[in-house]
Q: What sequence folds into this?
C-alpha cells in the first residue's frame, strides 16, 4: 500500500525517514555534533575587529596591496598565470603613509618583478619557490622606497593555462 509522504509516494514501512525523528543520517548527525563540540585546531588564527589599532600599538605598520596577476611565458607562449597578493611592512607610521602614497610605483615594481620571476623560474605545473620570489620582490620594492621593512606574500599561486 502506498502513502503520500512529503510530496512523494513511499512504500509503507520502507521510508528512509520513518523510524528517525530527524532528517539526518546517523553519520551526518555524529559529524555535526563532533564539529560543534570540538575546539578549533591550535594552528587556526582568528582575526579580531579593530585589528589595525592593535597592530599599531604593537609597532606593526602593514599596508596591503591588491592582487597582482602576471602571465607565465614559456617558449613564446602563455602557459599560465602567476597570482600573488602582498602586504608591505613599514618601519614606522610615517613610512606606512609614504608607502600608501607611493602605491602605484610600488605596484609597478611588483608587476615587473613578478613578470621577470614568472618568465625565468615559474611553470604552471610545479610549485613556486616562495622564498626566492620574496627576496626578489623585497629587492625590487626596496629600490622604490627605502622605508619598506619587509614584503610579505599572503597569497601565491601558479595556474596552468
A:
Amino acid at each position: 500500500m502506498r502513502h503520500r509522504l512529503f510530496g512523494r509516494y513511499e512504500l509503507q514501512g520502507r521510508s528512509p525517514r520513518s523510524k528517525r525523528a530527524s532528517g539526518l543520517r546517523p553519520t551526518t548527525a555524529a559529524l555535526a555534533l563532533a564539529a560543534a563540540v570540538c575546539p578549533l585546531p591550535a594552528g587556526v588564527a582568528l582575526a579580531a575587529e579593530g585589528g589595525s589599532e592593535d597592530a599599531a600599538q604593537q609597532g606593526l605598520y602593514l599596508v596591503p596591496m591588491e592582487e597582482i596577476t602576471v602571465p607565465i611565458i614559456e617558449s613564446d607562449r602563455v602557459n599560465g598565470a602567476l597570482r600573488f597578493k602582498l602586504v608591505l611592512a613599514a618601519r614606522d607610521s610615517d613610512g606606512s603613509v609614504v608607502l600608501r602614497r607611493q602605491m602605484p610605483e610600488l605596484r609597478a615594481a611588483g608587476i615587473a618583478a613578478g613578470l621577470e620571476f614568472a618568465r625565468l623560474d615559474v611553470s604552471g605545473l610545479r610549485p613556486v619557490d616562495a622564498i626566492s620570489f620574496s627576496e626578489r620582490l623585497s629587492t625590487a620594492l626596496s629600490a622604490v622606497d627605502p622605508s619598506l621593512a619587509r614584503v610579505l606574500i599572503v597569497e601565491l599561486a601558479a595556474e596552468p593555462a
In short: Confidence is low (pLDDT under 50) at residues 18-22, 33-51. The two ends are 57 Å apart (CA to CA).
